[in-house]
Specification:
- The complex is a heterotrimer of chains A (about 325), B (about 525) and C (about 290).
- Chain A is mostly helical and about 325 residues long.
- Chain A contains 16 helices and no strands.
- With about 525 residues, chain B is of the alpha/beta class.
- Chain B has two domains: about 230 residues, 3-Layer(aba) Sandwich (D-Maltodextrin-Binding Protein, domain 2), CATH 3.40.190.10; about 270 residues, 3-Layer(aba) Sandwich (D-Maltodextrin-Binding Protein, domain 2).
- Chain C has one domain: MetI-like fold (Orthogonal Bundle), CATH 1.10.3720.
- Chain C is built from 14 helices and no strands.
- In chain C, helix 11 packs antiparallel against helix 14.
- Classes of the chains: A mainly alpha (about 325), B alpha/beta (about 525), C mainly alpha (about 290).
- Chains A and C meet through helix 2, helix 6, helix 7, helix 8 and helix 10 of A and helix 1, helix 4, helix 5, helix 6 and helix 8 of C.
- Chain B: It comes from Yoonia ponticola.
- Chain B: Keywords: Cell membrane, Lipoprotein, Membrane, Palmitate, Signal.
Chain lengths: ~325, ~525, ~290
């Protein structure tokens, strides 16, 4: 990782008698344009994202904004201990993984399915109108979506209980029932985001111009080969990133929908941290939790990435 | 500032107030002095140099303020703990001469002892006679705002008035059913049951919702009818001072247990809004305008207002205050009162080169003239003096804009400023039903003292942070579960107590009591 | 293939079922928008009481009158366009060459560069260090700061890189023969081929800029530079009266609910207008696995 300047591993594969430095110069002479194109992005990343990353160390410090990061005292793993000391954290971790897994298993195919279904629609006006509409909920704030969900599931006037009453089923106070929280939450987020995410897949399906396909067909590559080469890797990349975001359950929506009575199934890592931090508003504790999330995410991504690399030759890096 | 409103511009142009008592006795400095200020509050995110009230203050004192607010657009809310503007300001390392904000207390009490803000005790004793007199008069306030190192770091906003929330019931419904206003727990239960079963709204459908609340903790408030407690301050689920004078938590007491058991029965029987946990802030509008809500516990001012706004919509509508019903032991308790002290106010930055002038300036707002300016705005504009007392003008009260919003626009009633509110200001625009309700509560002694909070040392804070949030979650989880019929509080009580101990409630109470002892005795 | 009739009948049933399912889903996703629109045209009291379900109650234009007469509404609306257009162009200027470079197999340290990008998707510095960094760079309280400060996004970069990687090298061979350099290959060969992909990434940039508010709130001092979403938040704070006094607004013909609904409606309309233009690029892409052809 750290040997970017002198990329030895790449070199050893070649049988080449010229000195390394000479070959680098040659390479740069030939390929300088690529590096020039890469430079703005790399400089941007270093300047805007990596430079302030010294801030991560506050996860191990008793951070005082007044003293600053450097002068705040080290306290080791105190924040992490606080995090793990609580049984509720472990419960939240379990809930997070459960909700994420379910969202992934149910939620990941839905936009793909939707994209494929859109593809089968031949009526162009219908198709275009529908595509424009399905991504609307993405633009409507969680507060309003949550309000609609609460109304829909209300025991007295909600549409769900009204329908249930046709079948002589007593009204259920869904939002206070732990067993109902996850289906409602997962269903809501899938419904809200499926339209927008399907755009990603529509783009993946049609990601490259027709000319490309046409030429490819001429070249003898079948459409399936093309799809294999372009669409599938995109979906795999998306899947890897989703796996990496396993601990990032849309917490705003949960805050709006959960109740103490449903913490048991609804509380996730982010909501737990939100309530913990609320008492004292501590950045250091939040940083510790964030770091924990990031490390887990990275382990998951690396695992998913190397599996993907082995079997599909697609990888994030 | 471009946000100068039209009304403020007009007022500024015709300002008379300054001349009324501009004899110089309030002048602090010989040469005009300018101090920098950070002022952030949700409703006035930065200091506005054109506020008419501020212009008069600087004419009188010779001190003017210059806005240097950082993070103004984050708008520090009154309700949640977020103080991003303050954090950003501190992070820049440039602390202005004066820092005013909502949610200031915890911030200055953490960073004051670290050296970001000046301790005020000596400055007040030497240079601020009005503030000193105020604290001498009410030592509990000085105690309550002190940091763990014993120093005061901010001058708070001090609300005035005693009554906040009260019980409201449909008097016309009681009349329809031939019932009296309930005086005891049993009578409340009987009335709620009658509301449920006897069709007080007369529409032939049992659609009445006997007890409802905008915020579900106002349901938990009812445990006071069983001699329990729901909180010790104006913050829900807060600690309280028990009969022995120690800090304790209400959700560990037996009155609470009995109350929850009773409420679970009520909920099961339909005496409580079935959707109380999710209906939210619209419930009052909805249930009252649909003529189905019977009783609640809520703010006097806003709840009484429905008698006017719904007079035409709901025939015979009378939703008026009733006294707190007596518990089995005969106690009538109104648990909620206006807290005498808020975590809002202002402080002096450590780099301020004029601390003496600044504390004198803070003190100015506690003089008679300053306090009137802070409460009523500009004389001749918002108010006139009638019999030696400020009286809002008729035009000001009846122009349709909420009075508090109008006052913010001229720089009055700013809670990011340290001042002592005058209840008279609110009284003058409260509606008659609210005043009648408050008069009713004035007839007895129903209020109880608030727990004003403690300031922790870093070690105490760590103990508290580690255990308390989880304990609180657990308490609320069980509380709601019991009311919804998920478990029986009587049967579960021992296990509940045990779990609280296992989670470290005793440790939390211990640090609370140590801090309390240090701060108040 | 032997039984053409059966095949096409199944086909037709499939097409109809498919359309019905999409129709139902589409209507359900339209509901929140209908709800918001109805709310924005209802009276303040009815909106607050939660009586609006499908159509406006006590129809009124008061909420729109209120926001359209606010100077800050227009100012912030204009700002949102500046941030969205400026930010999207800026992002593409970084992302397209960056993604192209990352997709080149011959680049040294390719794995390292890609890892450098991926890492930022999960590890971030936190509020205060990022804020201080922006301050040190002199980018607080400026349009340019908001536009450049969020130009690169790891997800978009990797997405675009992936599209570039999928293009067979045979495409650029002809251009290379003609002596084209990498810039020319990118502009003349890859960009036209990847139009739908670029449109997708542009859409993501537009959406995140359009909806973004948090950093604008933190980084901008001057109220005249805030985007519409921050104005929406400010309006909610200004109009929601404290607990204690809510009833004072009860008779107003608008309320915080109707006014914020009106702002949301105004903010969604441009999105509805813009989307078909971007959609065009998707449509040009080939239909894979389609029933026809």
């Amino acid at each position: 990782m750290s040997d970017a300047a002198t990329p030895k591993p790449a070199v050893t594969h070649f049988v080449n008698k010229r000195p390394v430095s000479q070959r680098i110069v040659d390479h740069l002479k030939r390929e300088w344009q690529i590096y020039l194109m890469l430079a703005p992005t790399v400089i941007w990343l270093l300047l805007f994202l990596y430079k302030p990353m010294y801030g991560l160390q506050i996860a191990f410090k008793d951070y005082s904004i007044f003293r600053g990061v450097a002068a705040s005292p080290w306290i080791g793993f105190d924040h992490f201990e606080t995090l793990f000391a609580s049984e509720q954290f472990l419960r939240a971790l379990k809930n997070t993984i459960y909700i994420s897994m379910m969202s992934l298993i149910i939620g990941f195919p839905v936009p793909i399915l939707l994209a494929l279904m859109f593809n089968e629609v031949l009526h162009q006006t219908f198709k275009k109108t529908a595509q424009t509409i399905v991504y609307l909920p993405h633009f409507i704030s969680s507060v309003i979506i949550a309000g609609i969900v609460i109304t829909a599931f209300s025991p007295s006037a909600g549409i769900v209980n009204t329908i249930l009453s046709w079948f002589d089923i007593d009204p259920i106070y869904f939002l206070t029932k732990p067993e109902w929280f996850r289906p409602i939450f997962i269903g809501t987020t899938i419904w809200q985001e499926a339209g927008f995410q399907s755009i990603v897949f529509i783009a993946a399906i049609s990601g490259v111009s027709p000319t490309l396909y046409e030429s490819a067909v001429v070249d003898g590559a079948s459409r399936w080969q093309m799809m294999w080469k372009i669409t599938v890797p995109s979906i795999i990349i998306m899947l890897i990133i989703r796996i990496g975001n396993m601990l990032e359950v849309s917490f705003e929506m949960i805050i709006l929908l959960y109740q103490p009575a449903t913490y048991e199934t609804a509380d996730v890592v982010n909501t737990f941290i939100y309530r913990q931090g609320l008492q004292s508003g501590q950045y250091d504790f939040a940083a510790a939790a964030g770091l924990f999330n990031a490390v887990i995410a990275f382990v998951l991504v690396m695992t998913a990435n190397s599996i993907s690399k082995r079997y599909s030759r697609t990888s994030l890096w | 500032m471009q946000r100068l409103t039209l009304s403020a511009a007009l007022l500024a142009g015709t300002s008379l107030g300054g001349t009324a008592f501009a004899d110089g006795h309030l002048m602090i400095v010989d040469e005009p002095l300018e101090l920098s200020i950070q002022m952030n509050h949700a409703r006035y995110p930065r200091y506005d140099e054109t506020w008419p009230v501020e212009k008069i203050a600087s004419e009188l004192t010779g001190i003017s303020l210059r806005d240097t607010t950082v993070g103004a657009n984050t708008r520090t809310s009154e309700n949640d703990g977020k103080t991003e503007a303050l954090n950003l300001m501190l992070a820049t390392g440039e602390i202005p001469d004066i820092v005013g904000s909502s949610r200031l207390k915890d911030f200055v009490n953490q960073y004051g002892p670290e050296g970001a803000f000046l301790p005020l005790d000596d400055l007040i004793a030497e240079h601020a006679p009005n503030l000193a007199a105020f604290y001498a008069d009410r030592p509990e306030i000085a105690n309550a705002i002190s940091a763990a190192d014993g120093n005061m770091y901010y001058v708070p906003y001090l609300p005035d008035g005693k009554y906040g929330r009260g019980y409201f019931i449909r008097y016309d419904w009681l009349e329809n059913l031939g019932l009296e206003v309930p005086e005891t727990l049993e009578e409340v239960e009987a009335v709620l049951r009658a509301f449920k079963n006897d069709d007080p709204n007369g529409n032939g459908v049992a659609d009445e919702v006997p007890y409802f609340a905008r915020q579900w903790p106002e349901l938990i408030r009812l445990v006071t009818l069983w001699d329990g407690r729901s909180t010790g301050s104006d913050t829900y689920h807060d600690f309280y001072i028990n009969a022995e004078g120690n800090v304790d938590h209400p959700y560990a007491g037996e009155g609470y247990r009995d109350g929850i058991a009773g409420l679970a029965h009520w909920y099961d029987e339909g005496l409580i809004d079935a959707e109380i946990f999710t209906r939210g802030s619209s419930s009052r509008e909805y249930l009252l305008s649909e003529d189905i809500g019977g009783m609640t516990h809520d703010w006097f001012a806003s709840t009484a207002g429905y008698n006017e706004s719904l007079a035409d919509t709901v025939e015979g509508f009378r939703f008026e205050a009733m006294l707190p019903p007596a518990s089995p032991s005969g106690v009538r308790m109104e648990e909620h009162r206006r807290i005498p002290i808020k975590p809002d106010g202002w402080a002096i930055g450590v780099t301020n080169e004029h601390p003496v002038e600044t504390i004198k300036y803070f003190d100015f707002w506690f003089t008679e003239e300053g306090r009137r300016l802070a409460n009523f705005g500009v004389e001749g504009e918002q108010y006139t003096m009638v019999d030696g007392k400020p009286q809002f003008t008729e035009e000001f009260l009846t122009n349709g804009e909420p009075v508090n919003n109008q006052l913010y626009q001229v720089g009055s009633q700013l809670q990011a400023r340290g001042y002592f509110q005058d209840y008279e200001y609110e009284k003058q625009w409260s509606n008659q039903y609210a005043l009648e309700g408050i008069d009713l509560y004035e007839t007895g002694d129903y209020l109880i003292p608030d727990f004003l909070g403690v300031s922790f040392t870093a070690d105490e804070q760590r103990v508290y942070d580690r255990s308390w949030p989880s304990i609180r979650d657990y308490m609320l989880e069980r509380q709601q579960g019991w009311i919804l019929g998920n478990g029986d509080v009587m049967a579960d009580w021992e296990g509940y107590q045990q779990t609280l101990q296992d989670m470290g409630l005793q440790d939390v109470l211990e640090v609370m009591n140590v801090a309390y002892e240090r701060q108040y005795n | 293939m032997a039984n053409m009739n059966l095949y096409s009948r199944n086909d037709r049933i499939f097409v109809i079922v498919n359309m019905v399912l999409i129709g139902i889903f589409t209507i359900s996703t339209l509901y929140p928008f209908i709800y918001i629109a109805s709310l924005s045209f209802s009276s303040g009291f009815e909106a607050r009481a939660g009586n609006v379900i499908l159509t406006p109650i006590e129809t009124t234009l008061e909420a729109y009158k209120y926001i359209l007469s606010e100077r800050m509404f227009w100012v912030s609306y204009g700002n949102t366009f500046i941030y969205t257009i400026g930010g999207t162009i800026m992002s593409l200027l970084f992302l397209i060459p960056g993604a192209y470079a990352l997709s080149r197999p011959q680049i040294y340290g390719r794995r390292f560069w890609n890892l450098l990008v991926a890492f930022t998707m999960w590890f971030n510095a936190g509020l205060i260090p990022f804020f201080l960094n922006m301050r040190d760079l002199g980018l607080l309280d400026s349009y340019f700061g908001i536009i450049i400060g969020f130009a690169v996004n790891g997800f978009n970069l990797i997405l675009l890189r992936n599209f570039f990687e999928g293009v067979p090298s045979s495409f650029e061979e002809a251009a290379r023969m003609d002596g084209a350099n990498d810039f020319q290959v990118l502009v003349k060969v890859y960009m036209p081929l990847a139009k739908p992909a670029i449109a997708t990434v542009a859409l993501f940039c537009i959406v995140s800029r359009w909806n973004g508010f948090f950093w604008a709130m933190v980084l901008l001092q001057d109220e005249d530079k805030i985007p519409l979403q921050v104005f929406l938040r400010h309006t909610i704070v200004t109009l929601s009266d404290d607990q204690q006094f809510t009833a004072t607004l009860v008779n107003a013909s608008y309320s915080v609910e109707t006014v914020s609904a009106a702002i949301i409606v105004c903010s969604i309309v441009p999105v509805l207008i813009i989307y078909p233009f971007i959609q065009k690029y998707f449509e040009k892409g080939i239909l894979l696995g389609g029933v026809k052809e």
